[in-house]
Amino acid sequence: MMSAPKTAPHGAAITLSGCAKTFADGTRALETLNLSIRNVGMVFQSYALFPNMSVIENVAYGLRVRGMARTERLRRAAGVLEMMRIEALAERRIDQLSGGQRQRVALARALAVRPRAILLDEPLTALDAALREHLRAEIDALLRSLAITAIYVTHDQTEALALGDRIVVMRQGAIAQIGTPREVYFQPADAFVAGFVGVTNRLEGRIRNGHFETAAGRVPHGGGDRAQALIAFRPESARLCGAGEAPLRFTVAQVHFLGARQRVVLTAGESRVIAETGPQIPVAVGDEVGLMLDPSSLVPV
What would the pLDDT profile of 112-154 be if each residue is shown by its tens digit? Predict the structure, then answer.
C-alpha cells in the first residue's frame, strides 16, 4: 500500500494523474509528495477511528488537517454522512457503533476529502458473512457512482471477483497475474493462480492422439502428445451423469450439502476432483458416476 504511507517503491514509481505536472502525461511520482497533499483516501482494516471524537468529527478530520474552516468542514462531513445514510449517527461516540456502522464511518472519512483515489485494506474482514456481503454491494455501488479509482486489498477471492474491474494476484511480493475477473478465473496464468482464485480441479495424465488420458478415462484435448500433462478445470464446468454415459468415471467419496448446491468429491485411483450439482440431484457416497467435461473448459497448467 505504498500509495498512502511514506514508503518508496524499489525500481519503480507510483503515479497519479493530476497530482502535479512533472511527467509529460501530467503525472508525478507519489513518493515525492507530502502525505497531506497526495489526495489519496485510506480505509484501514481496523478502521482507525478516533475514540475521543464523535462520528461527524471523525469524518471531518481530514478536512481539518487540510485547514478547512470548521463550519465548512462540518457541512461537508454532514453531506457525506447523508450520502451514506448514516446521518443519524453524527453525534455518537465510536464505542456506540456496530462493526458495520464503523466501516461506513471509516469509508465516509476517506471520501470526505474528495480523493482522486482510495485504498481499502481488507475493510470487511472483521464482519460476519451476511453483513460482509451486504456492505460489499454497497461499497461497489457507491464507488462506481462517485467514479473514484479504488485499490482494494483482500484475501477473499469472492470479494475480488465481485468488486474488481482488474485483479492483480500477488505471490510473495511479485505479480503473478493481472487481468479482468473472468480472465483470472477462466484463464489462470499458472498453477498458483488457478489454485488461489476459486476452487480448481487438477488432473494428472498424458496427452496422446488428441486426447487427455487419466486414471478416470480420456477426453478430447488439443495440442501435441505429452508423456506428462496437468489440466485444470472448475467444479461448475463438470456435470455428473450415469457411470456409462461419460468418458470419465469416478466413485463418490464425499457429499457436502451447501443449501443452494451440493459439492461432490470424486475419486478415481489417485485422482480427486470436485463437482457441484443442484441440491435435488440424488447422489450418495460409494456411487459410481460419470463426469462430463467441456473440452474448452480444460486449462493446461
Answer: 988 888 999 988 887 888 888 888 888 898 889 888 889 999 9
| Integer angstrom CA distances of residue 211 from 45, 153, 295 | 48, 40, 10
The backbone region for 230, taken as left when phi is positive above 0, alpha when psi lies in -120 to 50, beta otherwise, is: beta
Report d(CA 220, CA 222) in Å as an integer: 7
In Å, how far are 17, 147, 262 from 286, measured between CA atoms?
60, 53, 16
Domains in the chain, please, with CATH?
39-165 (3.40.50.300), 199-300 (2.40.50.140)
d(CA 113, CA 157): 30
- Express each pLDDT in 6-64 by its tens digit: 455 565 566 666 554 444 455 555 556 665 566 788 888 888 999 999 999 999 999 99
Is the Cα dihedral 120, 137, 193, 125 positive or negative?
positive
- The Cα–Cα gap between 264 and 256 comes to 6
How far CA 293 is from CA of 174, 232, 239, in Å, comes to: 33, 11, 7
Q: Answer for the pair 74, 56: CB distance below 8 angstroms, yes or no.
A: yes
Cell matching residue 265: 468429491
What sign has the CA pseudo-torsion 233, 134, 81, 59?
Answer: negative
Q: Single out the residue of 203, 186, 222, 190 nearest to residue 273, CA to CA.
A: 203
State pTM to two decimals.
0.75
Which CA distances in Å does 49 have to 154, 170, 202, 259? 20, 29, 45, 38
CB atoms within 10 A of CB 244: 8
